[in-house]
Amino acid sequence: MKKRLSLSPVLISSMAFLLIIFSFSIASFLLPDREFSESENRYLAQLPGFSFDSLFASKFTENFEEYVVDQFPARDMFVGVKTQTEFIAGKRDTNGVFFGRDGYLINRYDKTTVNVNKFHNNLKYISMFAEKYKNVQNVDFYTMLVPSAQAIHTDKLPEFAPGLDQIAEFETVRKAVGEDGYVDVSGVFSANKDKYLFYKTDHHWTSYGAFVAYREFCVSAGITPPSESNFTIKTVSGDFYGTAYSKARLITTKPDRIDVYIPEKPVTFRTETDKETRDGLYFDEYLTKRDKYSYFLGGNSPLVKVTSNAGTGRNLLIIRDSYAHCFAPFAANDFDNVYLIDLRYYNGKISEFIGNNSLTDVLILYGMETLKSDTSLVKLTK
Amino acid sequence: MVFSSLMFMFCFLPAVILLYFAVPDKLKNTVLFICSLIFYAWGEPVYVVLMLFSTVVDYTHGRLVDKYKRSGQDKKARRALASSVIINLALLCFFKYADFAVGTVNSIFGTSIAALDLPLPIGISFYTFQTMSYTIDVYRGQAKVQNNIISFGAYVSLFPQLIAGPIVRYQTVAEALNRRKTTADKFSDGVMRFVVGLGKKVLIANNIGLIWDSVSALDFSTLTVLEAWLGIIAFTFQLYFDFSGYSDMAIGLGKIFGFDFPENFDHPYMSRSVTEFWRRWHISLGMWFREYLYIPLGGNRCSKAKWLRNIAIVWLLTGLWHGAGWNFVAWGAYFSVLLIIEKLFLLKRLEKLPSAVRRGYTFLLVVFSWVMFSIDKMPDILKFFGAMFGVGRCGFANTDGIYMLLTNVVLLAVAVLGSTELPLKLSKEIKGKLSERPVVLETVKTLFIALVMLLSVAYLVDSSFNPFLYFRF
Questions:
Q1: Which of residues 160-219 of A touch B (CB under 8 A)?
Q2: Is residue B167 part of a domain?
Q3: Mind giving me the DSSP string for B369-431?
Q4: How far is A218 from A221, CA to CA, in rounded Å?
Q5: B188-242 per-position pLDDT tens digit
Q6: I want to staple B254 with a disulfide (CB 3.0 to 4.6 A). Which of A163, B23, B259, B442 is the partner?
Q7: How many domains does chain B have?
Q8: pLDDT one-digit tens code per residue, B274-307
Q9: Are B161 and B234 found together in one domain?
Q10: Whole domain around residue B50: which residue ranges?
Q11: Domain check: are B141 and B207 in the same one?
């Protein structure tokens, strides 16, 4: 029987099939497991430990399937194949990211990706916080909400792309906060929408975007807004692929560039995170990694303190998400101390922190990406 | 475990193929039995006990029925048969319908009897129907009794068709259980069939299902006409490609291990009447109800009143078989009304109309039925129909709907063409043209297999959406 089988051309396709299933199963067995995915910026599932408890709770099998998917050989390549197929088939978004014009990958903001309840609650917490502190003596409060690229780069979106009006939603906060404390960036962003405000492959704003926003903040805070001529602008990386690209790996995508604004006047900085203290504001080691945005302040951390010799006598607290990472370097030119609190990881009491650190200014700075789903802003009310 | 998962394709299947073809013939059923139990245990380990219980009970009943029949004690044989049917139905009712009954009683009488809240054993509707077919076939003399409990266990738990059919009647595979051979041709056909099914499920059904997923998540009173139609048409194709794709994978795996399972779908959306639709959709279920319920009730060889009654009973139960919920009963009732109307007078009139009109008529009625099938609350069903016919005040279309349509146009076109006979004709054409050049034909097949596998893996690696639609069955 074996002889007859080996002669038959009918076996070619069967052999190909067997080759595919066996080679991938052997490869995934032999290849070492990866702990962290740089490109997806997340920890991958690991081989689950076996116990009868977890087996009968159906946990073991579930975790095992997750492990197989996460550790599948050539995972990144396959994600790219999928994205490319979707694009060719006429899809204009994948994994919640639009394939925009001119190489823009824009996070989708509509009823399929936004948790409307959480979003409204988050706006409510911010309003409550602002109203509570509005009349506190000696400390000025500001709120800045950053729309996502979808609301600004409307001309880069695919035809008929659905979206909710985030800027209109911000108006409820503006009303609660009052004109004095509300720093509007939507207007100036829309007016400059042809500039490089947002990364094309990442949901964050660029240093230029943060610079434009900082100028608006200065107007509210009574500081002379800096102009670009006050800085030397240096490109530190021309090879940045951000989070949107991790979800939508189109092969035609070109990398972003990361700029830093180095002040002309001689200011020195020191940055303290929960892990380390170092001179300067930037973490060069991230420029060779995937997560290049962490070049600014070293990434997420519950509390960061930036000290400078600006000598203005003003101290600023920014309650914020990661948008503040490239905003803080500008603030450090005009404040002696800039504290950054990330409510996702910070568990102290905000009111105590404000009382204990001789603050003169407090800024709430959040991007749409965080507001639409975050669950930590409730800490503002405590 | 579902076939369309990396776990199945790259861990379970290679291991089973290796084991199965390594052992001598007499151990092959043992390998299948054990592997099937592992496959079943993967989702819900405890319920393996249920499967073993079914195996032992039906094996014993089969032998009893056979023994009594042989010794001419027909009454006892019939009692053994009844006992087997009752135990199977009791299992099915307890696990599938108890909470439904409790909920209904509670809502009618205002009582508050606690629900059992047991997870539904996967595939219970399939394997209880199969085991019933065994004792009935033995009683009717249509199948020989199975004396080997391992072989019988392999039949009951056979993983290729365990959780989503086709429903294989015992007599169909009785021969193969005892003696079967995997030839090169059969193996190759099986591989091709599996890959075709995989593509239908992962590349078409899962993707088109995303449309329905996002439409069904919306408040139905805010739907535009376009969104409602797009959503339900997407579901129409999702269900077909998912279910028939799953059947293809099952039939393909069956062939790999030397079995011939019955066909389950025959281009149902090409049907020219509702009657014809049910001869082409989920064929193995229709056959089961026909053989073991409709004909024993008298079929159509009785008075007209009884005939209509029989149709009504069969379709209400068919509805209920698909899920323990009133929407499934309504869905069954809807089809029984349509079938009765067609059989009484409509079919004759339909025959005079052009095919395109008849296909349109059937497709539309089937699409309406999926509204009842896919939405489980009556008020929501009405709201959804309202949205389809513009009763709401949400207008004909909004940008969300237009965007959804434009970005899925290719996928929808693939689904429409894929559900016609075109792919079958095309593959026959290719096979015919290349029949003299087998190596070229095999190369074409190899490229097709590699492409579908590569794309399916890509979609599975980057996907959180790989639903299992038959969890209610």
A1: 160-162
A2: yes
A3: HHHHHH--SHHHHHHHHHHHTT-SSS-S--HHHHHHHHHHHHHHHHHHHHTSSHHHHHHHHHH
A4: 5
A5: 999 999 999 999 999 999 999 999 998 998 888 889 999 999 999 999 999 999 9
A6: B259
A7: 2
A8: 999 999 999 999 999 999 999 999 888 888 889 9
A9: no
A10: 6-180
A11: no
